[in-house]
């Protein structure tokens, strides 16, 4: 996002143009954040949680994002974001509602302590990838270690979302142009 903003500014774009976006029903982006936030307030269970709750929450969260993408599919960058969302959604749904993450990737960004922490985690977001993972190539398998400021393990869906966001920011930051081929209204 920061790179997209920086390149947009270098290309003569303006941040205030972001406020004049062509999006419809942008409020749908709030639903996934509200659902995921609410999950953290659920009491922790001593054992593993039922995958069905995770599947339902993820389906509603990703479903609202896909509806938003469909409604705004004509905006540059949004179809690419949608492809990334679908990629992540498939990886999550085919793996009991949680995104598998590579233990090797986790070890590269945070050492064995991070791998152990994810293995003990009973949240609804991630699980360690093992031999039972389906659609492995869509899961979080690529590490982005230090010196990157926010080390993480990411998926092909994350790459597609980032590329789509970059294209979207470039499009939105530029001034609106009218085509010289469109005739002015008749008087």
Describe, in plain words, how this protein is organized in 3D.
The protein is mainly alpha-helical and 187 residues long. Helix content is 49%, strand content 6%. It is built from six helices and four strands, in the order ααααβαβββα. A two-stranded parallel ribbon has the order 1-2. α5 links the parallel β1 and β2. α2 runs antiparallel to α3 and α3 runs antiparallel to α4. The longest helix is centred in the first third of the chain and has 21 residues. The radius of gyration is 20 Å and the shape is globular. About 3% of the residues have low confidence.
Task: Kindly estimate the percentage of residues that lie in beta strands according to DSSP.
Answer: 5-15%
Categorize the overall geometry.
Answer: globular
The unreliable regions are 179-183
Order of helices and strands: HHHHEHEEEH
Strand order of the largest sheet: 1-2
Distance between the termini: 44 Å
Q: Which value, in Å, is the CA radius of gyration?
A: 20 Å
Structural class from helices and strands? mainly alpha
Q: What is the average of the pLDDT values?
A: 85
Q: State the major sheet.
A: 2 strands, parallel
Q: Can you count the beta strands?
A: 4
Tally of alpha and pi helices: 6
What is the helix fraction of residues, given as a range? Answer: 40-55%
């Amino acid at each position: 996002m920061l790179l997209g903003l920086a390149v947009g500014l270098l290309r003569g774009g303006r941040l205030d143009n972001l406020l004049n976006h062509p999006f419809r029903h942008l409020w749908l982006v709030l639903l996934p954040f509200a659902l995921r936030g609410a999950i953290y307030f659920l009491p922790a269970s001593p054992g593993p949680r039922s995958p069905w709750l995770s599947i339902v929450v993820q389906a509603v969260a990703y479903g609202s994002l896909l509806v938003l993408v469909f409604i705004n599919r004509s905006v540059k960058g949004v179809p690419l974001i949608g492809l990334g969302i679908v990629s992540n959604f498939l990886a999550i749904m085919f793996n009991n509602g949680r995104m598998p993450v590579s233990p090797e990737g986790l070890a590269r960004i945070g050492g064995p302590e991070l791998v152990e922490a994810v293995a003990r985690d009973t949240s609804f977001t991630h699980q360690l990838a093992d031999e039972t993972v389906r659609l492995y190539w869509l899961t979080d398998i690529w590490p982005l270690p230090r010196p990157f400021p926010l080390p993480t393990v990411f998926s092909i869906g994350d790459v597609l979302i980032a590329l789509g966001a970059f294209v979207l920011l470039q499009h939105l930051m530029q001034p609106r142009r009218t085509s010289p081929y469109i005739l002015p209204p008749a008087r």
